[in-house]
From TrEMBL:
<keyword id="KW-0687">Ribonucleoprotein</keyword>
<dbReference type="InterPro" id="IPR018262">
    <property type="entry name" value="Ribosomal_eL27_CS"/>
</dbReference>
<dbReference type="InterPro" id="IPR001141">
    <property type="entry name" value="Ribosomal_eL27"/>
</dbReference>
<dbReference type="InterPro" id="IPR008991">
    <property type="entry name" value="Translation_prot_SH3-like_sf"/>
</dbReference>
<protein>
    <recommendedName>
        <fullName>60S ribosomal protein L27</fullName>
    </recommendedName>
</protein>
<dbReference type="GO" id="GO:0003735">
    <property type="term" value="F:structural constituent of ribosome"/>
</dbReference>
<dbReference type="GO" id="GO:0006412">
    <property type="term" value="P:translation"/>
</dbReference>
<keyword id="KW-0689">Ribosomal protein</keyword>
<dbReference type="InterPro" id="IPR038655">
    <property type="entry name" value="Ribosomal_eL27_sf"/>
</dbReference>
<dbReference type="Pfam" id="PF01777">
    <property type="entry name" value="Ribosomal_L27e"/>
</dbReference>
<dbReference type="GO" id="GO:1990904">
    <property type="term" value="C:ribonucleoprotein complex"/>
</dbReference>
<dbReference type="InterPro" id="IPR041991">
    <property type="entry name" value="Ribosomal_eL27_KOW"/>
</dbReference>
<dbReference type="GO" id="GO:0005840">
    <property type="term" value="C:ribosome"/>
</dbReference>
<comment type="similarity">
    <text>Belongs to the eukaryotic ribosomal protein eL27 family.</text>
</comment>
Amino acid sequence: MPKIYKPGKVAVVLQGRFAGRKVVVIKQYDEGTREHPFPHAVVAGVERAPLKVTKRMGAAKLAKRSKVKPFVKAINYSHLLPTRYALELEGLKGAVTPETLREVSQKEDAKKVVKKLFEERYASGKSRWFFQPLRF
């Protein structure tokens, strides 16, 4: 069976708290691990997308509405729907590892790094589709 979930692949979460949210795969585990004995992927996603901005808004309001709230999680393959899209974020792989998911302080630090990377990506105008919520 071909590997569907490669690093950088964009997927949609189907089940759980983050259902309907877009995620990018950071690392895949086709055989599972001791903590998670099922096929899963470590992902980073957008919990709360940036709000709409207009030309009339000032710089402070624009900065406030352009914030992204990320999440980092290990998700079962059966709860993910792969898309045809991929997203290249260079700093994600080093920032989020399976070890960071074990401790709360490390997970919070990883989320800060992901937030910074996502906000830079959004501000540059690349991959705007990733930061728009799904409408269904």
